[in-house]
Amino acid sequence: MSAKVEAKAVHKRFGEHVALRDFTLEVEPGEVFGLIGPNGAGKTTFLRILAGYRLPTSGDVRVDGVSVVHERTRVQERLGYVCEQPKLYADHTVLAFLRLMGRLRGLSGGRLAQAVERGVERFALGEVRSRRIGVLSKGFRQRVSLAQALLHDPPLLVIDEPTVGLDPRQQLELRGIIRSFGGDHTVLLCTHQLSEAEAICNRVALLERGELVRVTTAEQIRSGPGLEELFLDSTLQAATGEESR
Amino acid sequence: MRFLAAGGMVMLLSGIGAYYAVGQVSLFSTANLLLGAALLLAAGVLEARRFRGFSGRLARSLALRWGAVLAATFGLVVLANLLAFRSGLTLDLTVARQYTLSEQSLTLCAELADAERPERVELLLFDDALLADDVRLLVAAYRAACPIETRELSSADAPPAAAALLQTYDTALVVCRAQRCEHVGYPSEQNITSALLRVVGEELGPLVYFDVGHGEADLASERDHGFSALTSALRNEGMRPRAFVGAASQDVPDDAAVLVLGSPERNLLPAELDALDRYLQRGGRLLVMLEPRARTNLVELLERWGFSLPDAVLADRQSSPLLEEPQPLALVVNRFGSSHRVTSKMSSRTMVLLPTSRPVLAVRKPQADDDLAELVYTSPQAWAESDVEAALSGREIRPDPGELAGGELPIAAAGRYPRPGGEARIVVIGDRDFASNRWIRSLYNQDLLLNAVLWLAEQDTRVTIRPKAWTPDTQPLPLGTTLSYFYSLALALPELLLLLGIHAWYRQTS
Amino acid sequence: MTLRLAALFAKELRSLFASPIAYVVLTAYVALSGVYFFQHLLNYNRLLFVFQGEKLGSSGFDSGTIPLQVNSLNELFIPAANDFSLFLLAVLPLVTMRVFCEERTQGTDELLLTTPLRTWEVVLAKHATTYFFVMIMIAASAIYPAIVVTRSQLGLEHLLALYLGQLSYGVAIAAIGLACSSLTHSQLVAAMIAYAIPFALLDFAWLEPQLSESAAALLREVALLGHLQSFTRGVIELRHIVYFAGGTLLGLVVSMASLELARAR
Question: Exposure check for chain A: N or C terminus, fewer CB within 10 A?
């Protein structure tokens, strides 16, 4: 099963700084949707709002019609979130951590055990299952982070910078895993790696200074100038526009 | 902002710490408090700028909602505190329940509530007195149960009557009514209730006359055989003890609530016996305490009123293990007539010590409507030794055939006699010394005696067991034991915890 | 809901005891309590010896000559309980300061708050873990009075009342500290506010002479230390329980408000 995501006029400001400006977006069920943009574009801010970690200043985000602003926990039951630079409980072993996260998501007994084993197998964590997270490499931590997000088989997976810090082989592996989720699950990810977005996303949205500049499909990317050029064009336009202002 | 906040807190803590160190508000502590508060305020204002992020509608509604929740919680907490304060509910878990008022105190409080007294009774606690902290809870118990005012004040603010007492007595509590005050002494429940009784009972308390002139004990004497402790105890019950010189020409005063005959050693004059009889016929109340050696014509008077006092001394070998020096004549008794008002509150745990005693039996009713009852009994092993001189001179005695024995022998008895002139009451106790200064405070002697007087004076509702003063034991741990506990607990236990901590740190870093 | 709460409680407990600071705090409290308790005990013994009886060959202790107010309650248990409460105040902020702050600085709050846990569940689990730790601390220090209480004839119930007071007080202090931890990112700031608030509320004796009788009476009701005295004397008064429970409730609600409002920032 997969979920539909609708963001309507989402506005977020931090003091004087506007992180998201009238951001409106729709992600269809089963899509792998990518958010790209320069640093400070508002990608992570949007994902955090979607995951319920932050509230928008105004506007709303809905997952299958359920508002994340007013019914946060209902939305959170339906999504798995992987944050940027995986933040995990370093004093827990991998198994203990996965069991904890499973319980926090309402799993118990046999269901929990099965989900944990599935996660360990899917992300090849067998050799590190009894090791403390604090001593794991970045790659393994990222896998643990992904595993915890998928324990409860959520319809929506939200990932912030999935492959940052991973070596090329690990990046390829992870892209394959994410791509395989599409169809049965909706995946919303943000990334700096344009090639990654090109390779795995059905659609890509380009953000610039909190605004949605453009949404393009995989076909348009393949048939057109490519994401890199689109990205540079947009950033140049934005810079020119800023100068003229 | 952090520097401001940290600096502000350091100054605030310094200001408070300076006060506690010196014990008074000084320029240093005031300056630190003011500056510290100012710095914290500045830090707060700067911090508040972060809340400009709360500019959206959603954020504002969230902030308003939680502001309302906080305000409501605060209001709820204040209300709950107010209600709890007003309720005054307490649970006394002390061993002796020393902060729970005894039946006597509660009865007095109920009487105070019922009586119409224009002047209020005040209990003043001086917060600068040595034992003020010890007594606050007890004062709170009186405030909750009694219709009296309680006030906490410094001795410098004491009203004139109380101030005069404070010059003489080092006391934390004073009870006052109108211009009259009584000091409490050591702030125990017993002393507070006694002071209350003295304050409210002085003009109205029953008169208890003590017959003198026939070798009875001296009321004012503070020697071992004197009765000064008894008279003091009666005053603490709100009674007025007086000496009465029984002469042939004088009837027992009409205002006598009780007449006490404390074992006269000489015969009463015939006129005195007649006076006694007339007194009883008009509803008089008589308490007779008679020593074993007393062989006077009073015994015949009592026989006419239904009592029998055999010329014997009671002995009981079972009592002696309870005393330091084994003496069969010194009885420790705990068997009481449970149906009579005088002893209904007494039980096997409330023992009475009688140094030397004689049997007192209720044998016959002078008239059909009369009611006689025995009050106090020996153990089944006691007997009445007829060779009184031998027993009292310390010679070895044992039960002989023909002597009263083989059952619980009565030592005290009481009678009620409805007569045309009123209901006469008599209590006869086969010992006088138990009421003397030396023995009255032993075990429950005072309770038995006071209950008898109260019943005779028709102050039945105050018949009770009085609160016992209790202090924690003062036996310390031996030095060696103290040190071994110190090493094993105060040092070893923290050491163990520290080792566990090192283990946890090692696991974390390895 | 219960499973989630239990899982979070277990996780918090694990994190607490994985850190050496819990042991350091526990050690410090137990050590200080023990040393001061035995110091009071030795002083009490010396005081009794001063009042020794005149009889030759006596043990040196004759309770007949000892003033009534010199007893184990006034000279040992009450001063020891006062010391214990000050030590609690001294060490608890060191435990509470990290509870919320550490999650924020390590970033694990993002992990926790994106699970379907309600805010009150997160707050309750963290508070419950800290209260449990307070209970352990107080239970450890209870050994000292417990070994003496039978000889002093105070009774186990009296000791329980004393420790109920310490526990109520400790939990309220912890709740204040947790609320402070939820308000800031800095453990240092959290600890300092957590020290400042209880110290400021400790006792208003210094201010009372300047105020009217009713204002002074109100301040006495607000002061922390005054609410401990009756427990120490073996009496449990409802108003004191409500006072500490109210402080704890306020700490809980402030923590919840802080977490909720942090989302809006």
Answer: C
